[in-house]
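Handout, tutorial session.
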Amino acid sequence: MEKQEFLDKLRLALNGRVAPEVLTDTVNYYEDYINTQVRLGKSEGEVMSVLGDPRLIARTICETKGGQAGNVHAEQESGGSGEIRKTYRQVPGWVWLVLILIIVVLVLSTVFKLLSIFWPFIAVMAVVIFLMKLFRDWIN
């Protein structure tokens, strides 16, 4: 497959399924990527084989971008290996904070629930231990 055929298939597979700016950015990215790899000495055929099927790339982009959102972009790995990896936007810090607070509340509620169940046993054991120490001190 040649570069132009790859880009045309990619454009066709993305058309109408993602926002126009995502389509343009994606096609421009892959065109730049292919040109860069060719300038680095790889043949166009080698680059096309590394990239694979443009329809699969388009499907992945549509699935990860939710049809219209832009959370994922492909970027070249460092070291000029020619492989593509996906980077995902990080989850905001406030989401982690809310999740941690929910977990802490659940753990504390479980601990207090267990304490309320075992409180009579704990209280009786504390009294028995106290009386045993008192009795032992009294005998000695």
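The second record follows below. Compare its token runs with those of the first.
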Amino acid sequence: MKYGIVSRSYGNMTVAEAAKFMAAHGYNCTELCMSHPDFGGWVYNGISALDENGITKESTKEKADIMRDNGIEVTSFGVFTDNLAPGDDEYRQKSRDAFVRCMDFAAYAGIKNLSTELGFRPDKRGITTDVYESDLQRLKENFIYLGNAAKERGVNICIEACVIDVIPSAKRLRDFIEQIYAETGLTNIKALLDMANYIANSDEDDVFKYLAPYIAYIHGKDRKVNDCYGKILGEGEIDWVKFFMNYFRITPDIPFILEYTNADTTDLTNERVYKAVKKAKANLELLGYNTQRL
């Protein structure tokens, strides 16, 4: 199983310290994030301070290679910029330009995927009727622009949608990806599946039903159905045994990368994952599946 954790979970450590900690705790893949003392400058849902913090294609490759030298596959580069980019066109273009620069860094470092959310107005998240259609159109225009830039560089853009944002369900994300494909032929717009982000609108079956062909990798965190924010795995209402049964049946080679877990909760979270995985495999064997290779 490709099992990892986002590097920002250990944001108080240098990249080398984080890589060693990950390897010692059984992780073999990561989402590399610009959130370490020696590799910082990331701004969530904003424009990361790349120049101010010395983020370059060379430094990105250096940090990715540190991970690899410790047996950690770098599945993706965590960007998470403002793709809705409300406001004037100058800000929107600055956001795009920063994302494209990150594509250059990732391509040079040999990282295939760049991850991002949709972007949002901090004081007005979710769907509202006055901008329901215009927000989706704005997002589509932005991802077509970025998708073409990513195609030129041979990388993918992985969208992490969420129930409290413009694309609140697995079904709508699939439709969004397929609209872009139908209009442009772009096949490098992928899904970053985060079950916790869908739990109020999509269950553990729906997310695979709609997104399986498009999933680049998976985030592992939890959420209660009626909560706004997520929790570490095992503290919400996701049925992880059911989730992993679908995972092993449908997408067994896709990286599963934890979020929200930190150094203090790493062992606890691993214990919960191992327990759910063991039970899921046992259930699949009872149904006649061969789980020996999983």
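Points raised in discussion: The longest strand covers residues 73-78.
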